Amino acid sequence: MMLTSCDKWPENGKLDGMWQLTSIATDGEEAVSTIGDGIYWKVQLDLIMIHTTHETLNGRTFDTSATFEYKGKSLNLTGLYIHEFTSDELITDPESTALAWTGIYGTSAQFHIAKLDSKKMILENERVRLVFRKF
After folding, report:
1. pTM for the full model?
2. Cα end-to-end span (Å), the chain
3. Which residues of the chain register pLDDT less than 50?
């Protein structure tokens, strides 16, 4: 007897899974806890789904998605879509702050992976430092 499944094997190693954003520090400022904001990044295949339990964080919706490229110590997000209730909106303004609550500014984001293991991930660039815990 043979069993089959529709689940996909992790393609991104330790990056795959559900991550809760626990703190964010911008422009060298002290980190601010985001645990109460309920911000989660779900990484699977070539897509990151960003979800919050508080719709007021971006003013319109609970969900955002992005395609990404993960190589070594870099994580680059592109193709950022804000999911509306009846349609999806591609972010095209390079000065957009619609996703600032997630540490993403503009139409893409490039992060250095300072730490990635089975429990914790730290992403940073010249503007933000994001700390996540595996959820």
Report:
1. 0.84
2. 34
3. 1, 56-57
User: In the beta sheet, which residues pair with residue 44?
Assistant: 47
Is the Cβ–Cβ distance between 133 and 20 less than 8 Å?
yes
What pLDDT, on a 0 to 100 scale, did the predictor assign at position 57? 47
Strands (E) in the chain, as ranges, are: 17-26, 32-33, 39-44, 47-52, 63-71, 74-83, 88-90, 109-116, 120-124, 128-134
Contacts of 98 (CB under 8 A, 6+ apart): 58, 82, 91
- Distance in angstroms (rounded) separating the CA atoms of residues 70 and 74: 6
101 token code pair: 């609550």
Asked whether the beta carbons of 23 and 32 are under 8 A apart, the reply is: yes
Tokens of 98: 């619609």
